[in-house]
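Pipeline run #58 for the internal structure catalog. This entry was flagged by the ingest filter as a single-chain record with no existing model, so it goes straight to prediction. Upstream metadata was stripped on purpose; only the residue string is passed forward. Reviewer on rotation: M.T. Logging verbosity set to normal.
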Amino acid sequence: MSSVEGLVAALQVTPPPPSLGETFEACARQCANPATRQEFASLQVDVKLLEAYITGEWTALERQIAPTLGQNGDDDGLGYSYTTSKSDLADAALPGTAFLDIHVASMHVAHLLSCYRFLRNVCVSTPATQSTLHALLSTTTLMLRTTISWLDTPETELKAQLALMAQVMLQFLGNVVVAHPVNQQTLWPLFHPDLLEKILVECQLYRKMIAYAAAVVVNCLHPHDAARTTSLVEARQVIILLLQRCLTQEMPSDNGDDPALEWITMIFQTLFQRQTAALLYRNLSASLLSSLWAKLTPEQMLLLRMLDMVLMWQEDDSTGKTGVSFQPMDDAALVPFFCDEFRALHATDNADETEPMLEAPSVDRQAMWKVMEVETSKLMLHILGTLTSLHMHMPQPAILAFIPVLVTQLQRFAPTHGHSTNAFTQAPKEDETYGYRSAGIRVLGNVVHQNTEAQDAMRTCGGLEVLLNSCNVDPTNPMIREWALVALRHVCEGNEANQAYIRALSPQQVVSDVDLTKMGVEPVLEDNKIAWKPKPAE
């Protein structure tokens, strides 16, 4: 008798033998061999045997929960009045889940953990077993929800055991729905959005649980299902939590890898491939809050960071720099969408001020908004720089309306003076605008490439001067000169008017804040060249 046959025979014994947990563990290890998984599938095991064992262990575990005052009939305190202060609330810790007998509870958790390890492994790449285990989906999600609520127990060892059981349950759910539409259709409403949101909120300290929950989502989205994709995109709170757990969490694992980051990124990469980036961005708006947040919200900034990261990883994957496989994005609507959003972000605010309840933004909010505006503009320019370099379709109306706005912003952040010293040992000071001009000039260079109308628009709105002024060496941003030279080549390619315009330009004056009085010289402009002459005595 094989180990799998012995396991099935043991499940039929009432009550189950104490060694059944060890049998589950042994079979779980053997399931690394595809032959073992196929053997289990061929036995056509009655899933009710597994369900009965799981239910029995779970019921025994629930009996170990210590009753609260309201559960055992004691005084519930409704006949009294209590007063508290903020300090009382800050100092008092809420009581966690208590267990009557820690050792007994730990034993039942261990039995369930061994069972789910086996279930997790035995259904891998085995459609017949996945179909057999379909009946366990509802039971598992209910148990998972309760297990998460028990993670507030003060018993450290039992808490770790419960967290591990929840992780293995999530792995089982992730494996049992892989390429199995029936299981996906059943699990999705059980998992999304309520259980997924509960995991993202209450288990944020458990990065592996976040990762395995994200893996369940990824597996339910493949193969493509329009209804599930739409329901995820429209779940605003879930999208925000996914972004926050991925981009604002600073808890990498011991080996430096963060599985949650990779799996959540795969969720958004899948959504972006299905051309939902614009819809996601709009769903994260907050136009009803204030005139400031109508243009931009912090959640939209996080989404832009995610899109920028996905595009960057996609470029790295094309050169073999990452181990994650990404398919190229072909959403032709992204370029005009972000061109329009960039224009809207920098549009003059002509909002109606007749609303009586509308309060003017405070100074602090205005300052925060300016920082967010600059950071968001850079993210949009990074994204547009990547998208336009892929030679995606770029509608002329959006591009022609976008160019003057971008040129105006580049003029706004143009340096007004040089450095007071040419010493290379002086560390350049960076601010929130660092990288803005280089990202913008890269976009201009891409959109004018072999585009006569865009080239002419650059000439009429002052874009050529911006490019020429960016050709100076800038120690704080050495790449800007390289992007400017590329952009100048593209803007002049096949455009005689631009070439003649640049030839007609000549230096007007020398502007320098470098103190040359000690040297007794001053810079002067002669025949379009800078020369040094002795400074006349006063």
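catalog note: Residues 1-67+97-191 form one domain.
catalog note: Strands lie at 521-526, 529-534.
status: ready for reviewer M.T.
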